[in-house]
C-alpha cells in the first residue's frame, strides 16, 4: 500500500507532504510516514531543514477519530510529536485550511510555523468529550499563555490566522505561495541554534485567572467531564516540567476517551455527517441549481427562514398579503441583523449586503423566477393547499416547492399541484435563523434530485438536515407528543410541573415540558373557546395563562421572567384531579423518567419501524439540534442503548405502555439501535 506521506528534496530542504483525503486525519499510515520522514531527514547530511505540509483542502484536521477505542498502531501521536520537536534539524509546519486537534499539536511541536491568512487553528477535542492528548495542554500554554490555552482547549472554537499570530501560535503569515515561502523560511532558519522547542518554554500561572475562568464558565461547563478535566490538567501542570505535564495529560485523555460522554459526542460527530446521506438515491443523481429563493409569509418563521439564505448570499423574494405585515416582517429581520452587528459578529456592510438581497412583494406572481419556494404561513391544510395550487400555475418548471409545516401531510399538500415530484417539506425550527436542525420531509412522490437539492441547500445555509417520512409531527414533534401526554397525566396523578421539569433539567435538557410550554405559548393549538374546558391546558388558556408572554402559564413569572410555582395552577390541577377522579400516588423521579423519556424512545423505535427515519442516529441528530437534548448523552436512541434496551422495555411495561416491536426485538436479541 502506498503511504499517504511522500518526501522530496528541494535543495537542502526536505519537503514532507501528506495526502490523506478528505481532511488529512493523522491515522496510523500518516503517523508512520511522518515518523519515517523525520528519520530520513536526520540520516541525510545534505538536508538542513524540514517542511511539513499537506495537500488537499486542509492541514491535519486532527487525530483519526475512527481509531479511538481501538488498539493504537505505533507510533502514537504523543510519541510522534515529541520526535518532531526533538529533531536536530529545524522543522517548519506550513499550514492551510484547519490545523485542528492533533494537527495543531503537530504544528506546535514543529520549531516554526507559517500559514496562509485563511488558515484556522483550534483544539476541538473538547467537542468530542476528550482533551488534547498529544501535548496540546502543555505546548499551547507555553506558546500562547494559560488564558488563551484555557479558552481554546475548553471551548474548542478555532481562531483565525491573524489572531493566532497575535497569540504567538504563528511565526509568519504569508499571502504568497505557502510551500515556496515555507521552503524559503526553512533556509533562513536552517542554521539557527538553539532551536525553539516549545516544550522547554516556561509557563506562568496566575491562579486568579483560572478561578475567574472557572466562574465565568460554570454554567456552560455544567455536567461536562471534558472541559473541567482540561482546566484541571492545565492548572495543575503549569510550572511543572513538560514530561510530568504530559503524563497527567495522558491520564486525563485515557479517562475521558473511555468515558460515556466521549462515546456519545463521537457518536454525534459521525451521526451528523451520516444524516446528510440518503441511502436509496439512484446513482448519478445531481442536485438542481438554487440561485433564487421565494418565501411566503413574513412572520417569525418566514423571516427567520429568509435570513438563512440572505446570510449565505442567496437572494430572497418574500411575500405577504398586507403591506404592514410585510414591513413589520422585514423590519424584524433588519433589527435581528443589527443586533448581531452590535455584538460584533457582523459588519454594517454585511448587514446592508444581506438586506440588499431581500425583495419584499405582495404578489405571489413575483415568485415565477425562484428555484426554491418555501411556504411559511400558519398551519391550515386548506390555506396551504390553496397556496400550492396557485404556486403550481406560477412557479417555473423544475422549481422546488416546499412547505414549512411542522405536522401536516406533505403528500396531501403535493396533491394540490400537478408536480408532486417537486414538492417536499422543509421543517425549520424556531428561531429559524439560529436553530441548526432542518427536517427535510420526503413525500411519496418527491423526486430524488429534489430531495438531494434540499440536502445540498441545507448544507449551504449551514443547517444539519435529516430526512423524515410523511407522518404526523415527522420525527421530532412526533416523539414530543407521548412526552407531553405523559407529562400532563403525571400532573393529574400527583406530580407538580416543577417536579417533572426538574427531572428533565437534571437529565441535561435545557428545560422541561412545562417550561417549554410556557416558552412556546400555552395557547398554541388551543380551540379558543374559554367556556370549553376539557383539560388542565384548556383551563390555563381560558384564564389567559398563555406562558411567558403573559407573565403566567404553568408558572408565574416576575418582570425578569424568573419563574415561581403558581398557587393558582396548583388549584387548577387539584380541581381537575377531583373532577376526573384520578387516583393519586406519590410520583418518583424514576417514574417521570420512564413515562416521559422512555416513551420518547418507544416512539423513536416506531418511527424507525415505519421507515420514517433512515437510521437511529438521524433521530439522535434531530433531538440534539432541534430540542436541546444533551449532546453528551448522544441523543435519545444512543442514550437508550447505553441505559440498556431491556431496562427501557421493563420500564415501559411497568406502566402498561405498548412496547414498539423493534424495541422489543432488539432488547430480546441483545442488539442496539446504534
Ligand atoms: C484529536 O486530534 C485528539 C488528539 O489531541 C490526541 C490523540 C492522541 N477523523 O466535517 P466534514 C471525516 S481529536 C476521522 O464533512 P468539512 C468526516 O467524518 C480530533 N474522520 O468536512 C467526513 O467523512 P465522510 C480533533 C474525520 O469540510 C469527512 O471527513 N479534530 C475527521 O465540512 C469530511 O468531514 C477534530 O475534531 C477526523 N478527525 O469540515 C476535527 N474529521 O465523508 C474534526 C473529519 O465519510 N473535523 N472526518 O462523512 C472537523 O471539524 C471537520 O471535518 C473539518 C472539515 C472542519 C476539518
Shape summary: globular
- Strand elements, count: 19
The CATH architecture name of the largest domain reads: Alpha-Beta Complex
Overall pLDDT level = 97
Describe the structure.
This protein folds into three domains: 5-257, Alpha-Beta Complex (2-enoyl-CoA Hydratase, Chain A, domain 1); 293-471, Rossmann fold, CATH 3.40.50; 495-583, N-(1-d-carboxylethyl)-l-norvaline Dehydrogenase, domain 2. By secondary structure, it is an alpha/beta fold. The strands form four sheets. It has an eight-stranded mixed sheet with strand order 12-11-10-13-14-15-16-17, with helices on both faces. A six-stranded mixed sheet has the order 1-2-3-4-6-9, sandwiched between helices. Helices cover 47% and strands 12% of the residues. The chain starts with a strand and ends in a 5-residue tail after the last helix.
Write the layout of secondary structure elements.
Elements: E1 5-10, E2 13-18, H1 28-43, E3 49-54, H2 77-86, E4 91-95, E5 98-100, H3 102-109, E6 112-115, E7 120-122, H4 136-144, H5 146-155, E8 159-160, H6 161-166, E9 172-173, H7 178-189, H8 207-216, H9 225-237, H10 242-257, H11 260-275, E10 293-296, H12 300-311, E11 316-319, H13 323-342, H14 348-356, E12 358-361, E13 372-375, H15 381-394, E14 400-403, H16 410-414, E15 423-428, E16 437-442, H17 448-460, E17 464-469, H18 476-493, H19 497-507, H20 513-520, H21 536-542, E18 555-557, E19 563-565, H22 567-580, H23 589-609, H24 616-627, H25 636-643, H26 645-654, H27 661-669
Helix pairs in contact: 1-2, 2-3, 3-4, 4-5, 5-9, 9-10, 11-24, 12-13, 18-23, 23-26
The chain binds (S)-3-Hydroxyhexanoyl-CoA.
(S)-3-Hydroxyhexanoyl-CoA is lined by residues 22-23, 25, 58, 61-66, 77, 98, 100-102, 105, 124-125, 128, 132-134, 136, 270, 273.
